[in-house]
Amino acid sequence: MLNKKMTTNNNYYNPKQMAIREKVFNTIIRCFKRHGAETIDTPVFELKETLTGKYGEDSKLIYDLKDQGGELLSLRYDLTVPFARYLAMNKITNIKRYHIAKVYRRDNPAMTRGRYREFYQCDFDIAGQYDAMIPDAECLKIVHEILNELDLGDFRIKVNDRRILDGMFAVCGVPDDKFRTICSTVDKLDKMSWEDVKKEMVNEKGLSEEAADQIGEYVSMQGGMDLAERLLQDHKMSQSKQACAGLSDIKLLFKYLQLFHVTDKVVFDLSLARGLDYYTGVIYEAVLTQAGTVSAANEAQNDTNAEESVSVGSVAGGGRYDGLVGMFDPKGRRVPCVGVSIGIERIFSIMEQKAEASPQKVRTTEVQIMVASAQKNLLEERLQLISELWNAGIKAELMYKKNPKLLSQLQYCEEAGIPLVAILGEQELKDGVVKLRVVATREEVDISRADLISEIKRRTEA
Amino acid sequence: MLNKKMTTNNNYYNPKQMAIREKVFNTIIRCFKRHGAETIDTPVFELKETLTGKYGEDSKLIYDLKDQGGELLSLRYDLTVPFARYLAMNKITNIKRYHIAKVYRRDNPAMTRGRYREFYQCDFDIAGQYDAMIPDAECLKIVHEILNELDLGDFRIKVNDRRILDGMFAVCGVPDDKFRTICSTVDKLDKMSWEDVKKEMVNEKGLSEEAADQIGEYVSMQGGMDLAERLLQDHKMSQSKQACAGLSDIKLLFKYLQLFHVTDKVVFDLSLARGLDYYTGVIYEAVLTQAGTVSAANEAQNDTNAEESVSVGSVAGGGRYDGLVGMFDPKGRRVPCVGVSIGIERIFSIMEQKAEASPQKVRTTEVQIMVASAQKNLLEERLQLISELWNAGIKAELMYKKNPKLLSQLQYCEEAGIPLVAILGEQELKDGVVKLRVVATREEVDISRADLISEIKRRTEA
User: Fold this and answer.
1) What is the pLDDT of residues B316-371, one digit of tens each?
2) N or C: which end of chain A has fewer CB within 10 A?
3) The pLDDT value given to residue A56
């Protein structure tokens, strides 16, 4: 596997990987900033009790710190719960923030004792009491912008609503106390066939075959605003107030998404469930639809232990969670929130594979010029010149040798992708010029010292 | 304290603090990249055994993870040891890298059970077998560039060499096995008077009064290249081969620093010791010399528990550690290294205090324009326009309300420092224009939709 060459070890990232990561981060941060987001930071540890009861079955993956007689601490499992706690703690009722930071989870604890996983999450959230679906639509616009700009291939954004799911379960005859567990099973539809999902519902979770079949009909439905309208007329679905509220919001959401010109990528999909307990309204997930990239993503999951609760091909997900902040407020004050998490680790893996497949080398520095010498005993002159360049903001390197060979200086440039070389020699010093060499073409031209900086900028800051 | 207003809690950072941090990071990263550095990342946990025996007395501050039956893990204490391990593990013999990441230390464990501290370190290191003092000089140039650009006030960079200290101890009659402990005491000279330091040497560490007095004479010496030359002639000092090697390198270092035009800020100071065990050659530390900022820095230490082993007013430090990588290589292969760590947490605190003292507000977003409406029922038109702006790369916000009041939209801009407002009304829509309002001057001008984007760029991307 080509990918192995780049990956030195789990959680170690070499300069080539970091260069790719930086590019991805920059694209995403640029988008978040374009939408007016601020950023905050929260500690890597939270009180164990803060995390308890927020992640459903996944709580077993929380990593605890050694009990040293003080507070019991755990490593943060995601960025959403710390965000909610931050809002409650500081009584913040309105904020649009992004947060890019590492989270920590235990590897399947039964199988690999004590091993852990460390990976980035990349979240954008809007908190505040606003008119319906406006911030929700912006979150989807953001996903659309980011996936377009990263150029990962074609994608779809699936949309659903927790209230539609719950309403559907109710009208299909699922007992109230089985909503969550049946929801988890529906969530597996992107990895399992309907037959297997139905088997799990009936055999493992004790649902009646009839109820399962009714669910089966609904979860096969996909569409747009028209589907939401049809379901609002559906004789069964329309009996659920919850489902109707969700369906009306989906309609409104599509109206706004039309104004954003992104409906070509968005599909209302009743099989989308998403695992986490805290969602209360609209939910969404972006998936790559091209076979090539999907298999790359699939692989990424095995290689770098990509993010939990992100299904095959999934590169972003999120939804509305109006109740979470209230759980941390002493008076239970609610702050409605909606957000999206970009599946950044999977995107890194795809970008790394693309880079490996491309004939173009990944540059790990942005150096514009190498300050070189053609003869011996010119270290002082090189130091003086490079100092001038640094002071003028030029990215420049020199070899840390008193008398490097010209050839090895030029070879270094070829390997590192440095486009220009400033060559100093006795004659050039006498003439007050520098020989500027273009590495790619081997063209050489004498430039006066006075014009050197502007010439470098002209040739490398296009 | 003004500073308290910004600090919500230890390890929580609000948008204002993050905006200041981002600015500082950008300045520093720009400098590291100008010098051709790549970046890497290493995991937040290391095997406990990796960290053992590298930090001398400070080892008690290492934070352990819960023993869950697998490997014993500790949180990284700094970025230097993980870097050295990374080089050895991947057999890398040449690299110039920066690494900005969080490290973790226990708070004085005897006093505050279980509490920990989390803070950024910001390191630049050059690894490789090179000609003497060239990379070392570049590290000092980098410190000079960063402190200049951050504009923290006047500063000095103190320079010394472990070999000069060891040679000095030897010729002053310090027994070999007391070098390290006497060195720790010398390290306290920036916080304690010579009298108290001498007392500790004699009474606590059992050094003879005569030896202490001889040390006292040397450690009061400060100068430049001239001092190194004088000490090379010093009848006692010149008896130590080690000291002479160090002094010759200091001479060479100053020669290179002269070519970089930075000697005005650099002082050869025989009292500079630095605590960590792994230094083998040149060491240095940058301190702010202005009373105001020094007291601010001092305060920062109490407030945010700034970095260990950084003395009062210190904002950067580092040195040469030629033996550390070899400790992680199975065959003990040496990779000489020199590096510098920027005292970023202290710099953040100083910048926050400066921001609080300044009449200018810190902006937490870069939003260029607010898309507003002057009448009711224009949400769709606002959504359409803002989508066009986002697609053109303009940073834009709108209020998440169907019918916001114009006044509250304008007030939002004033508070958030958004410079422009695009106001939509029935008339403007009819005329195919947007009323562009400059928030600061209240000037309003009609701009055609076709010209809007270039007009926004012209006015905000100066």
Assistant:
1) 999 999 999 999 999 989 999 999 999 999 999 999 999 999 888 899 999 999 99
2) C
3) 66
Same domain, residue pair B412 and B301: no
Q: Is B154 annotated to bind ligand?
A: no
CA-wise closest residue to B372 among B363, B364, B382? B382
Query: What rounded mean pLDDT belongs to chain A?
Result: 89
C-beta neighbour count of A25 within 10 angstroms: 17
Alpha helices by DSSP H, B190-240:
194-199, 209-219, 225-233
Flag whether pLDDT at A189 surpasses 50. Answer: yes
Q: What is the CATH number of the domain that holds B396?
A: 3.40.50.800
Q: Which two tokens stand for residue A201?
A: 């519902």
Asked whether residue B329 falls in the same domain as residue B223, the answer is yes
pLDDT in tens, A330-350: 998 999 999 999 999 999 999
- Closest CB from A35, A90, A365 relative to B38: A365
Instruction: Flag whether residue B376 sits within 8 Å of chain A, measured between CB atoms.
Output: no
Task: Give the count of beta carbons closer than 10 Å to the beta carbon of residue A448.
Answer: 11
Task: Specify if A364 maps to a domain.
Answer: no
* Residue B362 placed within a domain: no
- Which chain B residues touch A114 with a CB distance below 8 Å? 67-71, 73
DSSP class of B37: -
A52 domain residue, yes or no:
yes
Minimal CA separation from B446 to chain A, in Å? 24
In a domain, B364, yes or no: no
Chain B residues with CB under 8 Å of A37 CB are 365
Q: Do B33 and B165 fall into the same domain?
A: yes
Taking an 8 Å cut-off on Cβ atoms, the answer to whether A15 and B8 are in contact is: no
Residue B9 contacts A, CB cutoff 8 Å: yes
Contacts of A379 in chain B (CB under 8 A): 134
Burial of B108 (0-12, 13-18, 19+ CB in 10 A): exposed
Q: Does B264 touch chain A (CB under 8 A)?
A: no
Residues of A with Cβ-Cβ distance to B15 under 8 angstroms: 38-40, 95, 97
- The neighbour count for residue B41, using CB atoms within 10 Å, is 21
The whole-number pLDDT of residue A7 equals: 34
- CA distances from residue A432 to A388, A448, A456 in whole angstroms, order as listed: 14, 6, 17
Residue with tokens 């993956």: A61
Chain segment B2-54, per-residue pLDDT in tens: 333 333 346 789 999 999 999 999 999 999 999 999 999 998 888 887 877 77
Residues 402-431 of chain B whose Cβ lies under 8 A from any Cβ of chain A: 402
- Reported ipTM: 0.90
The more confidently predicted of residues B310 and A186 is A186
Mean pLDDT of B141-157: 96
Name the band, by pLDDT with cuts 50, 70 and 90, for residue A214. Answer: very high
Residue B450 touches chain A, beta carbons under 8 Å: no
- A33 lies in the same domain as A147: yes
Q: Which range of residues forms the domain containing residue A385? A: 369-460
Show the tokens assigned to B455.
């007009």
Taking CA–CA distances from A141, the nearest residue in chain B reads B387
Q: Which of residues 300-359 of A touch B (CB under 8 A)?
A: none
CA distance A109 to A115: 8
A261 touches chain B (CB under 8 A): yes
Q: How many residues does chain B have?
A: 462
In the numeric block, the tokens 């790619």 are attached to: A440
Q: At what angle do helices B162-171 and B179-186 cross, to 10 degrees?
A: 110
What are the C-alpha distances in Å from B124 to residues B80, B174, B339? 9, 34, 5
Query: SS3 for A339?
Result: strand
Q: What letter represents residue A426's amino acid?
A: E
User: In chain B, what residues touch A115 (CB-CB under 8 Å)?
Assistant: 70-71
Torsion of the alpha carbons at A422, A425, A430 and A436, rounded to the nearest 10 = -20
Q: Contact B70/A113, CB-based, under 8 Å?
A: yes
**Contact yes or no for B43 and A402 at CB 8 A:** no
